[in-house]
Amino acid sequence: MSNDSFVVAAIDDLMFQSKVRTIAEARGVDVPVRIRPEQAVQELEQSDAQEKIFVVDLEASGFDAVEVVRSLKQKHPGIRVVGFCHHTDTDLVRRSKNARVDVVIARSGFEQLFAKMADALRKEPPHAS
């Protein structure tokens, strides 16, 4: 992941919103968390970053995450999508992969993966001359 990356999350679960914000803030990176996926998608479209990553709660109750991803990938195939859900929901995992979610992670492993993503986003300190 390059330093010229933009990550935005569409998560309607308050607990996971808080986790994302806490992890990002602890690493000094900005990761907007949106309840409405169309807002997150709009931010991705407006970003001039080379690498764009959409993090989505595949089990969101306020929107159909699989449809959001399907539409996003049709319009912007280069945007990477990381989705999370319960690993036991094999039907949702299958539908997500069919919608072209790049990485489907179990809810239980999400924090660890997101922490690694946030670490990669953190800008390296300038080298002393």
Strand content: 15-25%
- Provide the spatial order of strands within the biggest beta sheet: 2-1-3-4-5
Count helical runs: 5
Helix content: 40-55%
Outline of the structure:
This protein is an alpha/beta fold. It has helices at residues 14-26, 37-46, 65-75, 90-98, 107-121; strands at 5-10, 33-34, 51-57, 80-85, 103-106.
How are the elements arranged and paired?
Blueprint: E1 5-10, H1 14-26, E2 33-34, H2 37-46, E3 51-57, H3 65-75, E4 80-85, H4 90-98, E5 103-106, H5 107-121
Parallel strand pairs: 1-2, 1-3, 3-4, 4-5
Helix pairs in contact: 1-5, 3-4
Which features does this protein show?
129 residues, globular, alpha/beta, single chain, disordered C terminus, Rossmann fold, 5 strands, 45% helix
Q: Can you tell me about this structure?
A:
The chain has 129 residues and is of the alpha/beta class. The chain has one domain: Rossmann fold (3-Layer(aba) Sandwich), CATH 3.40.50.2300. It contains 5 helices and 5 strands, in the order βαβαβαβαβα. The chain has a 5-stranded parallel beta sheet, with helices on both faces. α3 links the parallel β3 and β4. α1 runs parallel beside α5 and α3 runs parallel beside α4. The chain is globular, with a radius of gyration of 14 Å. The C terminus is likely disordered.
